[in-house]
Every structure is written in structure tokens, then in C-alpha cells.
Automatic annotation (TrEMBL):
Gene Ontology MF annotations: catalytic activity
Database matches in Gene3D superfamilies: Nucleoside phosphorylase domain (3.40.50.1580)
Domain Nucleoside phosphorylase: 14-137
UniProt organism field: Neosartorya fischeri (strain ATCC 1020 / DSM 3700 / CBS 544.65 / FGSC A1164 / JCM 1740 / NRRL 181 / WB 181)
Name by which UniProt lists this protein: Nucleoside phosphorylase domain-containing protein
Length: 446
């Protein structure tokens, strides 16, 4: 990676990489072949109204903008993605890169282990009222239903990488990139944690206090919805989760030959569930994997896909159960960043021309911003509906959702006023039902 002060224009950037956590962004920075100087003499300064923080550079033949999100979650991701167009209007593809929870086994029987990488072939949008995933998942009802698939060039490349030859090239480049990344980041902080640290528990096995520790919450957990905050903050070693060997479904032993290389990450393709809550329940994880073929869980793509074509590339750092640990996050982030670079090396170059010749630049930017605002408002509106649905059964709830769907399927013109009127309609409708929902909440509590 080198630093470059040559003249680069904002319109040349066609790829956005979005990272929610600092160590994810740090890993992605190692993938840059060049990092551009944003000082004087360059045309790279952000728009005054764009609050995002960026790293700008080149990966292969692509000019890439790395977005440093302030926090995790779909709303932060949506805000960040909507703001990118202010400064870099030519973005054609978004990569959501970082760490995720993984399903231990694919539907065709292959193991997914910690440190592996998942590339999304589609997104299952969900909203979860309980971070422990005890309640039912409610798919979001946008115009694409609850499934979103990449289209155009991203989908074509993913299909190409399914082939044996394409996969081997992608994997080889990922491994080479990972070796270089770990040399830069340091094995001590980002290195492979060891196979002995990769343990898979039975889906129903709880992360809780065990005898002889006395805990009123954990000892009375015949009601599985009981949640012990003290246990949540404790590690599996502290709680003795490893002591019951019958609950360990998979333990990866270290190779007997100490000179054996570190296991190489495997790259998996499949649908990824994306929402605004961390999935921490092995049973719900397996339920979604069986019904929808889900291979991973993450929290940002739901906010990005509304703004431009999106592919998720994430490293598996836990098994989306209650036995979570941050031990694998750095290595998984490095694996994902290395795979993202390998993916971009296969991705055809995009034309930096952002707008049709006959369209004034300011008009197109204005319309894209208004569309982003409408998408963001719709996301907030859906969150309000989900909240009301948890309090009481509302007879008009289905009609509200139908209204949101109807708004989505309109063939909207590029007129700013059209977007403004629809956004105003969504706001007024949301305000009306928010008032009604407040009365429902009061009645339910009373």
C-alpha cells in the first residue's frame, strides 16, 4: 500500500466499502493498493453536508471509498449510504465488509467454521424485537418482498465465482491477500486464534450460571425467556460452559504436526439475514437456516441495499448463539477484507460517468438524495409498525403495510416534487398511526 498525491476527481469513485466497526475498517485499509491524499491540490474534499468519514484509494483498477460508520445497525448504515452520493455521485456498487454470525452447516452439509468468509447471494430482511431471538422474526415487507438479490454485474460475477475455476482463483487471491494483511496488521492482534478456540455448542445449550453458583434468574430458567445480564457479560470459561462435553457438537483439534500451516479460510455463498439486532439463539439460527437457506447474520446491509446494488462479504466470528466471544473478530475481519479485495479484482471496471449526458448533474444528485431520504423514512416507518405490532393486534396493520408496498412499486419519475409529496404522505400516515398506536400502548399497559 502506497500513499498517492496525484490528481483524482470525486467522480472517479465507483465502489463504496461500508464498515461498521473500527477493526473492520482497519483490515480493509490494508487491501488498498494506493491511498489518496485528501489535502490541498486535490478534488477529494467531502460535501459540507456529508458527515461521513472516509478513506479514499485504489484497489486494483477500482477507485474505492471506504466509509467508517459511527455505530452498528441498519439506520446508521442507511444514513451513511445516503450521504455518500453527496460527495461521490458515481458509486455503482456497495460492499458491506466486516464480521458476522455464521450458521455452522450449509444445507448441502458443508461445515462453516470460525474465520471462514460468506459472500451474499441475496438478503433476507428481518426485524427482531428481542436481541436473544426468542420472539418470531418478522420479515420486512418492501417492494421486493423479504428477499433482496444483487442484480446486473454483481450477480453475474457471483455466478461466475460459483464455477470451480472461478472459486479457486478467488480463494487463492484471498489467501495471498490475507497473508499480506496479517503481516501489516500484526499476527499478535489479528492472527489466527487457534482451532481449539472454535467450539460449537448444542443449539439449546444456554450461556448461564451453573452449580455451585447461585443465580435466581438462571436457576429458574424453565422459562427460557429469562435473561441474566451478569451471565451475558461473562465468558464461557467463567460460566463453565465447556464442562458438559455432551453439549459440544464440534470441537476442532489442533494439528498434531506443529509445522502444519494455519487452516485456510473457506469461502461460502448463500443468503444472509440482515436486521437491526444481534441474533443470539442457536435454535432460531437453525430454524432460519432450514427454512430459508441462511448462512449468516449481520446488521448493516438492510440499510445499504436501498441506495445502490449491494454485496455482503463478511468473516464468521461466532455461531449466532448465546455463547458469543469477540476472540475471533479481528481475524474474521482480516479474512473478509482479503476476500473483498479478491472479489474486486474479479469485478469489471465501472464507468465513472455518473449521469446521462442530457441530465444536469445537480438535478440527478438532488433526485438521488430525495430518493435516499424516502428510503430512510420508509425504514423508520417500518420500525414504528414493528413496534406497534409487538404491543397489540392492530386490525389496520396489514393495510398500512400494503400502503408502504404500494408506495414502493410506484414507477416514480425523476421529479423532486414527486418524491417530496410521497415522503410527506408517508410522514402524515406515520404520524396518524403513531397517535393511534400511542392509545393502543396506553390501553395495553392500563
Amino acid at each position: 500500500m502506497t500513499r498517492c498525491s496525484r490528481q483524482v476527481r470525486r467522480q472517479q469513485f465507483t465502489i463504496a466499502i461500508i464498515c461498521a466497526l473500527p477493526h473492520e475498517a482497519r483490515a480493509v485499509e490494508t487491501a488498498f493498493d494506493e491511498i489518496f491524499d485528501r489535502g490541498s491540490g486535490t478534488d477529494l474534499a467531502s460535501h459540507p453536508q456529508d458527515k461521513n468519514k472516509y478513506t479514499l484509494g485504489r484497489i486494483g483498477h477500482h477507485h474505492v471509498v471506504l466509509v467508517h460508520m459511527p455505530a452498528m445497525g441498519k439506520l446508521y448504515a442507511s444514513t451513511a449510504a445516503a450521504s455518500i452520493v453527496l460527495s461521490y455521485p458515481s458509486i455503482k456498487l456497495g460492499l458491506v465488509v466486516g464480521v458476522c454470525g455464521g450458521v455452522p452447516y450449509t444445507q448441502d452439509g458443508h461445515d462453516i467454521v470460525l474465520g471462514d468468509v460468506i459472500i451474499s447471494t441475496g438478503l433476507l430482511l428481518y426485524d427482531e424485537s428481542n436481541a436473544l431471538a426468542f420472539d418470531k422474526l418478522n420479515p420486512l415487507a418492501f417492494n421486493t418482498g423479504n428477499r433482496v438479490q444483487p442484480n446486473g454485474k454483481p450477480q453475474a460475477l457471483i455466478q461466475k465465482l460459483y464455477s470451480a475455476r472461478g472459486y479457486q482463483r478467488l480463494l487463492a487471491n484471498t489467501v495471498d491477500n490475507l497473508t499480506l494483511a496479517l503481516n501489516i496488521l500484526g499476527e499478535g492482534q489479528f492472527g489466527y486464534p487457534g482451532m481449539q478456540e472454535d467450539r460449537l455448542f448444542s443449539p439449546s445449550y444456554q450461556h448461564q450460571h451453573r452449580s455451585p453458583v447461585q443465580c435466581d434468574v438462571c436457576s429458574s430458567s424453565g422459562n427460557r425467556k429469562q435473561f441474566c445480564h451478569q451471565a451475558f457479560k461473562s465468558t464461557c470459561e467463567q460460566l463453565g460452559c465447556f464442562e458438559d462435553a455432551t453439549q459440544l457438537m464440534r470441537v476442532r483439534a489442533e494439528p498434531s504436526n506443529e509445522s502444519s500451516p494455519v487452516p485456510l479460510p473457506t469461502i461460502h455463498f448463500g443468503p444472509i439475514a440482515t436486521g437491526d439486532s444481534v441474533i443470539m439463539c442457536g435454535e432460531k439460527r437453525d430454524e432460519l437456516a432450514a427454512s430459508d437457506g441462511i448462512v449468516g447474520f449481520e446488521m448493516e446491509a438492510a440499510g445499504v441495499w436501498m441506495h445502490f446494488p449491494t454485496v455482503v462479504i463478511k468473516g464468521v466470528c461466532d455461531y449466532a448463539d448465546c455463547h458469543k466471544s469477540k476472540r475471533w473478530q479481528n481475524y474474521a475481519a482480516a479474512s473478509a477484507a482479503s476476500c473483498a479485495k479478491a472479489f474486486l479484482l474479479e469485478y469489471p471496471a465501472e464507468s465513472p460517468q455518473a449521469y446521462p449526458v442530457h441530465s444536469p448533474e445537480k438535478t440527478i444528485i438532488r433526485d438521488r438524495i430525495s430518493h435516499a431520504a424516502l428510503s430512510h423514512a420508509r425504514l423508520l416507518f417500518q420500525s414504528v409498525l414493528d413496534l406497534f405490532a409487538k404491543v397489540a393486534t392492530v386490525s389496520t396493520m396489514s393495510s398500512i403495510s400494503d400502503t408502504v408496498k404500494m408506495i414502493d412499486v410506484f414507477h416514480i419519475s425523476s421529479s423532486l416534487w414527486t418524491y417530496f409529496c410521497i415522503a410527506a404522505l408517508a410522514f402524515v400516515t406515520g404520524y396518524f398511526y403513531a397517535s393511534a398506536g400511542a392509545h393502543l400502548v396506553e390501553a395495553a399497559v392500563g
